Amino acid sequence: MLNHVELLGRLAQEPETRYTQTGTPVASFDLAVQVPSRDKNTPPDYIPIVCWDKQAEFVNQYLTKGRQIVVEGRITTRKWQGNDGKNHKAVEVTASRIYFADSNGGGGNGNNYQGNGFMD
């Protein structure tokens, strides 16, 4: 089985970075992905993206709302029970690599950032 996703889009909002109880950074943001269509008024899809460790730190430092990027990763599903007793489910992309796709460069050197280079 293969679980691999590549998305090209723009950050829909500023990334949110938080830390686990053990101090591991986690960054999340929505990626606005436009599906090719003849109808120019078709709204984009908003895909939730999650990054961990060094990639989370990179996202926090260099990515801003509107930035065009490519995200490689895998689809993950989380399930939990809320305080109200209802079951919840979230589907998101856990990023393994992030590349700049616009001409803004990045990281001060204009090169693409490839994260830690591993695929889970």
Spell out the key features of this protein.
120 residues, 5-stranded mixed β-barrel
Can you characterise this structure?
- The structure is a single chain.
- This protein is mostly beta strands and 120 residues long.
- 8% of the residues lie in helices and 47% in strands.
- It has 1 helix and 6 strands.
- It has a 5-stranded mixed beta barrel with strand order 1-3-4-6-5.
- A hairpin with a 5-residue loop joins strand 2 (16-19) and strand 3 (25-33).
Q: How many DSSP-defined strands?
A: 6
- Across the major sheet, the strand order is 1-3-4-6-5
How big a fraction of the residues is strand? over 45%
Mean pLDDT value: 86
In short:
The chain is mostly beta strands.
In terms of topology, how is this protein built?
Layout: E1 5-11, E2 16-19, E3 25-33, E4 45-52, H1 53-62, E5 68-81, E6 87-100
